[in-house]
Amino acid sequence: MWKNVTVSYDYQGQQVTEELYLTIDLDGNQIVILPTAGVLLASQPCQSCDHARLRSDAIAEFLSHGRRVAA
Predict the structure, then answer these.
(1) Phi-psi bin for 13: left (phi > 0), alpha (psi -120 to 50), beta?
(2) What highest taxon heads this organism's lineage (predicted)?
(3) Which pLDDT tens digit goes with each residue over 37-70?
(4) Which candidate, 32, 39, 40, places its Cα nearest to that of 10?
(5) DSSP 18-59
(6) Within 10 Å of residue 16's Cβ, how many Cβ atoms?
(7) SS3 call for 63
(8) 26 near 16, Cβ under 8 Å?
(9) How much of the chain exceeds pLDDT 70, in percent?
């Protein structure tokens, strides 16, 4: 599991800033977790996947919850 991106989003009326977690399970699914909101986003494995990238639908779902904070 890697903690590699700080995100900021609104959750239950409060602004939350935390580390986003990215991991890959044993089946090759990429999983992103927003810990406070308890949001799990998963992408399907594929033969030519770049595991540093998520499917566009997972990215769209993430963007509906938060944004990357500039370092």
Answers:
(1) left
(2) Eukaryota
(3) 777 766 655 544 444 445 566 666 666 665 555 4
(4) 39
(5) EEEEEEE-TTS-EEEEETTTTEEEEE---TT--TTS--HHHH
(6) 16
(7) helix
(8) no
(9) 45
